[in-house]
From TrEMBL:
Residue ranges of domain NADH:ubiquinone oxidoreductase-like 20kDa subunit in the record: 22-158
Pfam family, one: Oxidored_q6
Tagged with keyword Zinc-finger: no
UniProt-recorded name of the protein: Oxidoreductase
Keyword annotations of the record: Oxidoreductase
Tagged with keyword Nucleotidyltransferase: no
Superkingdom assignment: Bacteria
Length: 264
């Protein structure tokens, strides 16, 4: 293996890391294609195992972290990554909300390991899958399962330019209105989480006539107390609602659920 070419002095360094995840969000970075070529002229990619086996130990100017903390090793690694990174941005539902693997948070993880593995004593896992921000300080959380490539480029360029990313936390509903998409709930009675889901996908599902199932996680100030009766009205029972909310962002939506005795 040839040694990596040293970056020109002053070139910011970018590192991409993975914890418990499917790699889909890192693939979004590779999927940027044209923008990626321009980007590699502006940054030095010092650690990105999905793209290159050449790695440098840091410190890094910007670290992108995919995946949730679901093992003791993840918890140790994220503290180490934080210590070596000037800015740390988490990417995707796994890293920002615990991901689909956070379904374990509502069950007994030991029961799962006994059911799935012939030798469960070899499995070293935490009882929960949690967001990176539950363990270390995070400079920005980019949502989605997977993330949106335009938002990713905006976040990277913003941090390199020293400004806050322009990624509003309004809802998918808002994005539908901006695109002039007919509301699937009003027009067809289709259950849709668009009113409480973070924008970023460009209202992809409603554009094709189907309801949003929340893959970008909760929007800013989501009103689930108002949302749940609407889902019931559109034919869902309590079990359906629970299943709808418990997908890629189960833990994040669970935090937003109204608790008994809580004011709206
Ligand atoms: S957020 Fe979704 S696409 Fe991204 S790593 Fe997790 S499961 Fe994969
Ligand atoms: S599920 Fe919702 S947030 Fe995800 S792509 Fe569809 S409309 Fe967008």
């Amino acid at each position: 293996m040839t040694a990596p070419t040293p970056p020109p002095s002053g070139t910011p360094t970018l590192a991409v890391f993975k914890l418990a995840s499917c790699d889909g969000c890192q693939l979004t970075l590779l999927d940027c294609e044209d923008e990626l070529l321009a980007l590699t002229g502006r940054v030095h990619v010092a650690h990105f195992l999905e793209a290159s086996s050449a790695v440098e130990p840091g410190p890094y100017d910007l670290a992108l972290v995919e995946g949730s903390v679901s093992t003791p090793d993840d918890a140790r690694r994220i503290r180490d990554i934080r210590a070596r990174s000037r800015f740390l941005v988490t990417i995707g539902a796994c890293a920002t909300a615990g991901g689909i693997q956070a379904l374990r948070n509502f069950a007994d993880v030991e029961e799962f390991t006994r059911a799935v593995y012939a030798r469960p004593e070899y499995i070293d896992t935490l009882a929960t899958s949690t967001a990176v921000a539950d363990h270390v300080d995070v400079d920005f959380e980019l949502r989605g399962c997977p993330i949106d490539r335009r938002q990713l480029i905006e976040v990277i360029t913003a941090f390199l330019a020293g400004r806050r990313p322009d990624v509003p936390d309004h809802s998918v509903c808002f994005a539908c209105k901006r695109r002039g998409i007919v509301c699937v709930t009003v027009a067809h009675g289709t259950p849709c989480l668009g009113p409480v889901t973070h924008a970023g996908c460009g209202a992809l599902c409603p554009a094709y006539g189907r309801g949003c199932y929340g893959c970008f996680g909760p929007s800013g100030s989501p009103n689930l107390r108002a949302m749940i009766p609407l889902l019931h009205r559109d034919g869902m029972d309590d079990r359906d609602v629970e299943r709808l909310l418990r997908t890629f962002n189960a833990a994040a939506f669970d935090r937003e659920l109204p608790r008994d005795g809580e004011e709206p």
